[in-house]
Amino acid sequence: MMNIKTEPGFQQVYFQYYAALFNTAYKILNNRQVAEDVVQEVFLKLWEIRHKLRISSSLRSYLTRAVLNTSLNHLKKNKRLVHLEDVSQNNSAQNSDDPELRVTYNEIDNKLNQIISTLPPKCQLVFTLSRFEGMSNQEIADHMGITKKTVENQLNKALSKLREHLRPYTKLLTDLAILILSTLFSYIAWV
């Protein structure tokens, strides 16, 4: 491993890995400026912690994982991940006068986001692009440079995990759906 603790060693790592890391970030973010910012952020963090850093895998693997995580965090922060929040701005459950409905909605929304955040980065990205960005399996495959079958496998893995972890919330989800529908029907009847 190169000595990243010295400035010349760090510069060597930067020039050796920058292009590959940028490409990784760009595949996820699809925005040149943001991808550059993400890679710069990863290198800045690396420089700041260089004296304490102990890498058990290869440096390339470590940096690639850091770029993946930082890119996904960027998507989350900028609410691209949670298209659900755009929808929920107008959602009668979240904005309801019924405190029970709001609490139920928030509990399920928090649990859903918690489960999604535990998925492996590639699986999380595929699920996010499919469910929150509305991309087709083929569009995701083209965007990420993977096969459509891989996209399907990653989606199945994500949905399986969601089903497993949301099973205890089945009654809560049913109650929430009933409350939302009754609110919707009340609104329709009023109009």
UniProtKB/TrEMBL annotation:
Family: Belongs to the sigma-70 factor family. ECF subfamily.
Residues annotated as domain RNA polymerase sigma-70 region: 16-80
Statement: the UniProt record of this protein carries the keyword Transcription regulation: yes
Organism of this sequence: Agaribacillus aureus
Signal peptide: none
Keyword Metal-binding appears in the UniProt entry: no
Gene3D superfamilies attached to this UniProt entry: 1.10.1740.10, Winged helix-like DNA-binding domain superfamily/Winged helix DNA-binding domain
Origin: domain of life: Bacteria
Protein name listed in UniProt: RNA polymerase sigma-70 factor
All residue ranges annotated as the RNA polymerase sigma factor 70 region 4 type domain in the record: 111-162
Keywords annotated in UniProt: Sigma factor, Transcription, Transcription regulation
PANTHER family with a match to the protein in the record: RNA POLYMERASE ECF-TYPE SIGMA FACTO, RNA POLYMERASE SIGMA-70 FACTOR ECF SUBFAMILY
InterPro entries (UniProt xref): RNA_pol_sigma-70-like, RNA_pol_sigma-70_dom, RNA_pol_sigma70_bacteroid, RNA_pol_sigma70_r2, RNA_pol_sigma70_r4_t2, RNA_pol_sigma_r2, RNA_pol_sigma_r3/r4-like, Tscrpt_reg_LuxR_C
